[in-house]
Design goal:
With about 260 residues, the protein is α/β, with parallel strands linked by helices. It contains eleven helices and seven strands.
C-alpha cells in the first residue's frame, strides 16, 4: 500500500556517538524523501562529530573515528539538509524519542532555523509497539517477510522503516492512510519540546513531564519557583527544551 500524501515525507535514520540527546552527535544520516506522486529522492552523509566515538558505540554501528575524520561536520551540511527537508513531514523508527530531538539539537548548534512545529511526525516504532511490540529487525521480518541485512546501517534502517510503514497500512484496517492520523497514532504525548520534558495537558497548557513538578503548569512553576528556570538552563537538558522553556518565560513576561 502506497502512502496517501498531501506533503512530501522524509524518512530518516541517525547513527550517533551515543544516546544522550543533549551531548551526543550525529556520525551518519540517511534521508529518504517520498513525494506525493510517489517519486523518491535520497541523501546520505557520514559526519565528523567533532568528538571521539566511544568504542562500544562503534562496535554497534561499525563507524569508527578514522571513518569520519575527513567527513564534513554537521554545520557544513545543515543548510543543505534543511532545504532538502523543507515542507516535509517526518517519519522514522523511534524518531519521536531520539532521532528528531537529536536532529533538532544539531540544527540549533549549527545556527540553522529548522522549523519543526508545522510538520507531522510519524514514529513507525510506536505503531509497531502498539500492534506487535518488537524490534526493527523483527518488524521487517514480520511485515515484509524479509531479513534486514546490515542492521544499524542508517541506509538499510531507513529503507526498512519506509517499507514497514507501508506494510502496516496494508495489514491494519484501523490505520488510516493519512499523515495526520498516523502522526497522532504514533505519538505517546503531545510534546511541547521534542524530548518530552514539557508536554501539553488536555487544556493545551504546557506542563512539566518529569521531576518534582511533573504535571504542573510551567507558568505556575516559573511564578512560584523562579530558580527552577535557572536550574534547567544550567542543567544537562537539550537545547530545544531550553528554547521552549525560554519562550514560555518570555511569553509570560510579555503578558504581565
Amino acid at each position: 500500500m502506497e502512502l496517501n500524501l498531501k506533503n512530501p515525507i522524509v524518512f530518516f535514520d541517525l547513527e550517533t556517538t551515543g544516546i544522550n540527546i543533549a551531548t551526543d552527535r550525529i556520525v551518519e544520516i540517511a534521508i529518504l524523501k517520498i513525494h506525493p506522486n510517489g517519486t523518491e529522492e535520497s541523501k546520505h552523509f557520514r559526519v565528523n562529530p567533532e568528538m571521539p566515538i566511544p568504542k562500544k558505540t562503534s562496535e554497534i554501528h561499525g563507524i569508527y573515528d578514522e571513518d569520519v575524520r575527513d567527513c564534513p561536520t554537521f554545520k557544513l551540511i545543515a543548510k543543505e539538509l534543511s532545504k532538502f527537508m523543507e515542507g516535509c513531514d517526518i517519519g522514522g523508527f523511534n524518531s519521536n524519542k531520539f532521532d528528531i530531538p537529536l536532529l533538532a539539537e544539531e540544527f540549533i548548534r549549527a545556527e540553522v532555523d529548522f522549523e519543526m512545529k508545522k510538520r507531522h511526525f510519524i514514529d513507525v516504532q510506536t505503531i509497531f509497539h502498539k500492534m506487535e511490540k518488537r524490534t526493527l529487525e523483527a518488524a521487517y521480518k514480520f511485515y515484509c517477510d524479509k531479513t534486514l541485512e546490515d542492521a544499524h546501517s542508517a541506509e538499510a534502517d531507513t529503507r526498512a522503516t519506509y517499507e514497514v510503514l507501508k506494510a502496516q497500512l496494508g495489514r491494519y484496517n484501523e490505520l488510516q492512510n493519512d499523515i495526520s492520523f498516523l502522526s497522532d497514532f504514533s505519538s505517546h504525548n503531545k510534546n511541547a519540546d521534542f524530548a518530552g520534558r514539557i508536554i501539553f495537558n488536555d487544556k493545551d497548557e504546557e506542563v512539566f513531564n518529569f521531576g518534582k513538578y511533573k504535571g504542573v503548569k510551567v507558568t505556575d512553576v516559573l511564578e512560584k519557583d523562579p530558580g527552577y528556570y535557572g536550574w534547567m538552563m544550567n542543567g544537562d537538558f537539550p537545547l530545544y527544551t531550553k528554547k521552549v522553556l525560554t519562550n514560555i518565560k518570555l511569553r509570560q513576561f510579555n503578558n504581565k
